[in-house]
């Protein structure tokens, strides 16, 4: 009888550890997915901002040339 009680407790402990491990893994996977999505969108946003910045620099250069031409 005592042996069965011990086996039952051991099985419960193993079940708790397994559930905790699975929960930890799921949380880790969820974090990795969120990081991946964030970095994907973040890098895309950075590329867009860099393109816009380059376009604005060109526009400023064009305006400066126009101002110089008008002043001459």
Could you give a short description of this structure?
Helix content is 97%, strand content 0%. It contains one helix and no strands. The N and C termini lie far apart (106 Å).
Tally of strands: 0
Q: Largest sheet, described in full?
A: none
How much strand? under 5%
Mean pLDDT, all residues: 81
Q: What is the helix/strand order? A: H
Oligomer state equals: single chain
Radius of gyration: 31 Å
Characterize the overall form: rod-shaped
| Main structural class | mainly alpha
Helix content: over 70%
Write the topology of this structure.
Elements: H1 2-71
Description:
The chain is an all-alpha fold and 72 residues long. The protein has one domain. It contains one helix and no strands. The protein has one helix at residues 2-71. The chain is rod-shaped, with a radius of gyration of 31 Å. The model has no long low-confidence stretch (mean pLDDT 81).
